């Protein structure tokens, strides 16, 4: 399940400052997408716009047949129930136990009796591995646990869409690995549409079906992970390889001449071939863990991955049928 989100020609400004313009993409139902971008490029603004907390100047966001940019506040309130959002810092109430934090949306938005609230809260706490920590206060637990508590809270209303704002920020690499596995397992279990904003390249290579990149007020690219990971587009390659050389600089933008020179030095200019992309091959996608039942789409992903990573089965470029011998594979 999960629902598709179709964004077309979206532009967001604050006063005279254009944050991004003409952003178009489709988040396919039930799939995991990652949005990458240097800090300050408006990734959080994008998430807030998707849930209707910020109004775009132009464009549309179509969810379940409705353009949510045109909705009145009370209809928007209904649409927001489709969303679960994991904010950057977990956004937990500091004086409330984890149990009460996670129960909060249920008590706000439903009329479930307390025993039903309890059943749901404990089910979600179990999903994210927090059983036993019900009485803890947010200040008494690690950053990783706070993220998981935020995630449990994002899950309690059984959302069709889950938005993650930098779920991996501030976590050590081991906790990031656990969180990534948790995200993939959850997607297989609840099959909602996921959008993860991050600048962690390693996670972006492992976790999603689709990757997008925001840079200089534009969506540079959005598409299936294999397209982005093998892309020749300089910004995409610089970002995915975490290099200093390329269009992205410390102060966000470099002048064109410098970029040209750096790319030439790297031998990755437009004229040269695909040297480095093949040196950093496609990372295999993270699959759901052994105990997790996989819906049919995961079978398809597993098969596609197996094909992508079989060395002898490299896709050959289409060739014209000529008199030359072509069957060397
Ligand atoms: N409510 C707001 N009012 C004015 N400017 C804002 C507001 N929210 C964000 N911005 C600006 O939008 C830009 C993008 O911010 P943000 O989405 O937080 O970037 P990212 O999440 O990619 O690091 C920043 O320059 C920020 O100052
Ligand atoms: Mg942000």
Automatic annotation (TrEMBL):
Enumerate the spans annotated as ABC transporter domain.
5-241
Q: Which InterPro entries match?
A: AAA+_ATPase, ABC_transporter-like_ATP-bd, ABC_transporter-like_CS, P-loop_NTPase
According to the UniProt entry, its GO molecular function terms are: ATP binding; ATP hydrolysis activity
Biased composition range(s): Basic and acidic residues: 302-329
Transport: present as a keyword of the record? yes
Keywords from UniProt, A to Z, are: ATP-binding, Nucleotide-binding, Transport
User: Where are the annotated segments for Disordered?
Assistant: 268-329
Q: Which PANTHER family match?
A: INTERMEMBRANE PHOSPHOLIPID TRANSPORT SYSTEM ATP-BINDING PROTEIN MLAF, PROTEIN TRIGALACTOSYLDIACYLGLYCEROL 3, CHLOROPLASTIC
Name recorded for this polypeptide: ABC transporter ATP-binding protein
